């Protein structure tokens, strides 16, 4: 999942593109103006409130019986401006320059359960940079040799064959009544392999906490972030005689952009907006190949982090009640998320990190460790856990192909990463748990297509029950490509820490 380069997201590799002749037209992102299902209100800074600090964004979580109108007034009295209020879940998003803003609101226990800053760096104006160079290969030089019934580059998609998606497509490609929402860095819907399945009416830009549905607002920024577009192809690239195939090439895909420009940071207010938008737009599955910034782990003992967990948890539960299943990647830190303690040396990642020791049972990686979310680890072509993938007995639900450069497949390209779509009508390779999660989201979409009345909890149970069991291996690859003993894998309850219930199976989903 990117910070699409040096920072730890859920995708790792720089893509190697296979260019096709298609053009990309980026539209300027409009300023957010209205919240889906919420309301906005502006307010002048309250007289007497301190305004000496940097402007930060906050989430304020209301008590069950608190009056939203009263909460907005309290925000204004404390020197804040209401950005939006999600009354369905009792979450208010606000901006303030008052350094004591959150502290003042926390004293009003009749209104608020928790209040916290969503970032440690001040708000910035929208910025863009020129798109960086990407290593590309002309399509005419591609070495794929497609058989009858395959897409041109499908021979290089070892990942589809691993989960039997190629066999599933002979039975059911997925239903047009099912949409997978890609909560990410934006999707290039003009890509010829994505355009046939793209749902504009279920797409938006949620950056800042308010959904903007202006034409093209959901597309990547001009700096060329390709993460969301790559994820989209894995889920739902069409079977149209071009490029690749997605796991569920018959379903619809939608883009919900939540990443900040330039930095590609994913802040709480945008992620809450993303889940709420998905719920209100009837999206059946969301894919979440990221973690919520600026904290890798969010601890309940910290007032700010506690509020972030509460706000996002309310949003995911609301969407689940509305029929949305959430799939999320486990992370690329090669950490045991079931360990008694872990070192977090990257948080906060928007200012200066302060190393700390955390207990992952109470300090959560969001959204992947929230209740009801399907947590996915990554595997390579040989079926081994990918060297970078985080894991954890009782934390990981299922596994799926995420790619591993050391597990080289017998494909024409001999590339162990995952091949998918890139902006501008191109194709390229990435590896990461970012690439594993969309395989699961695609299988979940096939399940929903075959079982349209299934609830999110039933889909989650079917994903696990139908997975191909995988025992703890004796050895795995490390980051240097050396084989080492797999001493960190634990097994219990018919599951393992590396693979959860097993590797998802697309064929069983459609049978």
Can you give me a brief rundown of this structure?
With 511 residues, the protein is of the alpha/beta class. Helix content is 20%, strand content 19%. The longest helix has 19 residues, at 303-321.
Radius of gyration: 22 Å
Low-confidence regions: 1-8, 13-48, 126-138
In DSSP terms (H or I, runs of 4 or more residues), the helix count works out at: 10
- Which percent range describes the beta-strand content? 15-25%
Mean pLDDT: 88
Helix content: 10-25%
Main beta sheet: 7 strands, parallel
Q: Which sequence of strands runs across the widest sheet?
A: 8-9-7-10-12-16-17
Helices and strands: which structural class?
Answer: alpha/beta
**Alpha-carbon distance between the termini?**
32 Å
Shape annotation = globular
Number of strands: 23
Give the tags.
single chain; about 500 residues; alpha/beta; 7-stranded parallel β-sheet; 4-stranded antiparallel β-sheet; 23 strands; globular; disordered N terminus
């Amino acid at each position: 999942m990117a910070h699409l380069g040096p920072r730890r997201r859920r995708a790792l590799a720089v893509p190697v593109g296979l260019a096709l002749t298609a053009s990309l037209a980026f539209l300027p992102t409009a300023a957010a103006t209205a919240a889906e299902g919420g309301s906005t209100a502006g307010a002048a800074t309250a007289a007497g409130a301190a305004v000496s600090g940097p402007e930060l964004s906050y989430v304020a979580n209301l008590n069950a019986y608190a009056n939203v109108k009263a909460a907005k007034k309290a925000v204004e009295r404390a020197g804040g401006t209401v950005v939006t209020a999600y009354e369905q879940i009792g979450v208010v998003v606000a901006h303030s320059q008052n350094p004591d803003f959150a502290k003042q609101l926390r004293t009003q226990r009749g209104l608020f359960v928790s209040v916290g800053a969503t970032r440690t760096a001040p708000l910035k104006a929208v910025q863009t940079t020129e798109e960086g160079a990407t290593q590309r290969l002309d399509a005419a030089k591609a070495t794929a040799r497609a058989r009858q019934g395959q897409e041109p580059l499908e021979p290089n998609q070892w990942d589809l064959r691993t989960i039997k998606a190629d066999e599933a497509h002979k039975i059911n490609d997925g239903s047009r009544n099912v949409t997978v929402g890609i909560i990410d860095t934006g999707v290039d819907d003009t890509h010829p392999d994505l355009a046939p399945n793209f749902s504009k009416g279920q797409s938006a830009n949620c950056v800042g906490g308010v959904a903007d549905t202006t034409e093209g607002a959901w597309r990547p920024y001009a700096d060329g972030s390709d993460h969301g577009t790559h994820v989209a192809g894995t889920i739902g690239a069409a079977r149209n005689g071009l490029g690749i195939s997605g796991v569920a090439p018959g379903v619809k895909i939608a883009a919900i952009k939540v990443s900040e420009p330039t930095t590609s940071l994913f802040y709480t207010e945008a992620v809450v907006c993303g889940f709420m938008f998905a719920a209100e737009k009837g999206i059946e599955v969301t894919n979440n190949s990221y973690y919520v910034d600026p904290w890798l782990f969010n601890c309940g003992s910290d007032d700010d982090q506690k509020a972030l967990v509460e706000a996002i948890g309310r949003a995911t539960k609301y969407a689940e009640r509305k029929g949305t299943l959430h799939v999320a990647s486990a992370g690329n830190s090669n950490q045991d998320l079931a360990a008694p303690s872990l070192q977090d040396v990257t948080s906060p990642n928007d200012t200066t990190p302060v190393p700390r020791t955390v207990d992952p049972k109470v300090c959560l990686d969001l959204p992947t460790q929230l209740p009801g979310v399907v947590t996915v680890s990554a595997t390579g072509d040989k079926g081994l856990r990918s060297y970078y993938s985080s894991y954890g007995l009782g934390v990981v639900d299922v596994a799926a192909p995420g790619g591993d450069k050391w597990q080289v497949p017998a494909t024409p390209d001999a590339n162990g990463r995952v091949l998918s779509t890139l902006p501008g009508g191109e194709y390229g390779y990435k590896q990461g748990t970012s690439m594993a999660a969309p395989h699961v989201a695609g299988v979940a979409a096939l399940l929903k297509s075959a079982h349209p009345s299934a609830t999110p909890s039933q889909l989650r149970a079917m994903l696990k029950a139908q997975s191909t069991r995988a025992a703890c291996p004796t050895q795995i690859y490390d980051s240097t490509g050396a084989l080492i003993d797999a001493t960190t894998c634990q097994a219990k309850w018919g599951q393992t820490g590396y693979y959860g219930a097993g590797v998802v199976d697309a064929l069983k989903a459609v049978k």
